[in-house]
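[Discussion] Sanity-checking designs against the backbone

I'm trying to build intuition for which residues belong where. Below is a C-alpha cell string of 196 positions. I'd appreciate it if someone posts a full sequence so I can compare it with mine line by line.
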C-alpha cells in the first residue's frame, strides 16, 4: 500500500515557515556546502524540486524516485501562486486541500474540499508511488492519523514564531527514528516511521 510521507524543512524550534509564510531564513551554508547538500537531497528526492526549477539543477529529465502525488495546504499553494506558478509540481499528481480556494487556476491541480482523511485513504488504495505531503502545518495535523512517515530536514536556526510543523490539537502520536543523516552545512535529516 502507498504511504503518506510528510517531507518538510523545519527550524530547531519546529517552524516550517515564518508568520507570513517566509522560508528564506533557513541557513544552507557557504556555496560549496549548500551545493553539496542540494545535490545529495535532490538526488534522493528529485520529485520534490518544483518543475520550474528542475532544469536549473540538472533534473529536467529526472524520474520520480519515491513520490508520484503531492498534497499541499491552501497557504502552501498560495505561495506558488504568488510566484506565478499555478502548477508547481507538474511532474506529479497535485492536490490542494482547501475548503475555500474554489476551482484551481490550472487544470493539472485538483482542489480537494471536504474530509482530507477520506481523500488520503482513497489515494492510498490506488496504485502508484508514495504520496508526499509538502505542507502546511494545519493539513499535517489533520492528516496525522494517516501519516506513515516523517522526513524532517532540521535547519540550525531558531525562528521564534511562525507556522509549526503540526498546527492542531494536543494528540500525542508515536514515531520511531529509522535513519539520520547530517550534512556539512549543519542540516540534520531524520527519517521517522509511525508506531501503530
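Best answer:
Here's mine. Compare freely.
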Amino acid at each position: 500500500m502507498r504511504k503518506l510521507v510528510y517531507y518538510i524543512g523545519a527550524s530547531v524550534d519546529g517552524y516550517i515557515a515564518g508568520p507570513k509564510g517566509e522560508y528564506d531564513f533557513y541557513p544552507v551554508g557557504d556555496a560549496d556546502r549548500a551545493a553539496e547538500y542540494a545535490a545529495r537531497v535532490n538526488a534522493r528526492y528529485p520529485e520534490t524540486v518544483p518543475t520550474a526549477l528542475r532544469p536549473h539543477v540538472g533534473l529536467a529529465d529526472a524520474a520520480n524516485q519515491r513520490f508520484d502525488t503531492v498534497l499541499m495546504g491552501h497557504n502552501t499553494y498560495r505561495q506558488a501562486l504568488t510566484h506565478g506558478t499555478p502548477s508547481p509540481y507538474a511532474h506529479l499528481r497535485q492536490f490542494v486541500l482547501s475548503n475555500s480556494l474554489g476551482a484551481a487556476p490550472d487544470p493539472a491541480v485538483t482542489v480537494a474540499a471536504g474530509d482530507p482523511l477520506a481523500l488520503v485513504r482513497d489515494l492510498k488504495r490506488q496504485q502508484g508511488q508514495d504520496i508526499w505531503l509538502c505542507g502546511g502545518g494545519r493539513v499535517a495535523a489533520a492528516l496525522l492519523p494517516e501519516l506513515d512517515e516523517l522526513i524532517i530536514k532540521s535547519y540550525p536556526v531558531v525562528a521564534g514564531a511562525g507556522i509549526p510543523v503540526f498546527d492542531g490539537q494536543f494528540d500525542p502520536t508515536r514515531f520511531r527514528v529509522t535513519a539520520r543523516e547530517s550534512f556539512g552545512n549543519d542540516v540534520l535529516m531524520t527519517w521517522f516511521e509511525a508506531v501503530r
